[in-house]
Design a protein that fits this description.
The chain is an alpha/beta fold. The chain folds into 2 domains: 113 residues, Rossmann fold, CATH 3.40.50; 115 residues, Rossmann fold (3-Layer(aba) Sandwich), CATH 3.40.50. Helix content is 35%, strand content 24%. The strands form 2 sheets. A 6-stranded mixed sheet has the order 3-8-7-4-5-6, sandwiched between helices. Strands 2-1-9-10-11 form a 5-stranded parallel sheet. α2 packs parallel to α3. The protein is elongated, with a radius of gyration of 19 Å.
Length: 237
């Protein structure tokens, strides 16, 4: 199958390699480019834990501090693995999805009197972790240190493949990417190409963002992991 991968690099390349190992071919079209913002080292004075909601947050934090022994709590196993790979020594993953799961993990596992929670984010965030934690008695600081820059157009290569109905499936890992894809496809008058494609969505929220497009099928991963996304490909689309 020919599978469209819309993740930012290098995550897109990693996921594409796994698809290749399963016998699929891919077209990589990062709809969002991640840029680390310039700035001083993170101020960790009085901070008891870092909160990461994405692998990009983990990478951006590692770029801004050499401290690796501070506690880290993440959303999703992939972010926890990335944080560990980057050298953070005390990493745990929340059981639930998104900031709701992260909030429950922090409230259930940390003492609000032990110090500040530093939430490392992009300039655009989903949910209100700071507000939720503040309501639970925690002192929380949000530090936007990377920017997710959206593509303004589809590449010529992808436009040609969609026009020729060469893409069998498309993968979407965030509501923002799904919303952006829908807008760009509509702008190119290529929405009809989706009728022959299956969309694979990381979560129900991602699937909802794809509703403006008439895909042949929209499949939602059983859990928000790359492994579950691969499993939803199944055999033939």
């Amino acid at each position: 199958m020919r599978v469209l991968v819309t993740r930012p690099r290098p995550d897109a390349e990693t996921f594409a390699a796994r698809l290749h190992a399963l016998g699929h071919t891919t077209i990589i079209e990062p709809l969002i480019d991640i840029a680390f913002l310039d700035g001083p080292p993170l101020d960790l004075t009085g901070v008891q834990a870092l909160a990461f909601t994405s692998t990009n947050g983990a990478r951006a934090a590692a770029d801004r501090t050499r401290e690796r022994n501070i506690r880290v709590i993440t959303v999703g196993a992939a972010t926890a693995i990335e944080a560990t790979t980057l050298g953070f020594a005390d990493v745990s993953v929340s059981a639930g999805e998104g900031v709701d799961g992260l909030h429950r993990a922090i409230v259930g596992g940390l003492n609000p009197m032990a110090g500040t929670i530093l939430h490392v984010t992009g300039t655009v965030t989903a949910g209100d972790l700071k507000g939720m934690l503040t309501a639970s008695g925690f002192t929380t600081r949000t530090e936007p240190i990377y920017e997710a820059r959206a593509a303004e157009t589809l590449s010529g290569a992808l436009t040609a493949e969609l026009s020729a109905n060469l893409v069998d499936a498309a993968t979407f890992f965030s509501p923002r990417t799904a919303t952006l894809f829908a807008a760009l496809v509509e702008a190119e008058n290529l929405a009809s190409a989706c009728r022959s494609m299956t969309a694979l969505a990381l979560s129900a929220a991602v699937a909802n963002a794809l509703q403006p497009l008439a895909f042949r099928d929209i499949r939602i991963a059983a859990d928000p992991t790359a492994e579950a996304m691969l499993a939803r490909l199944g055999g033939r689309i």
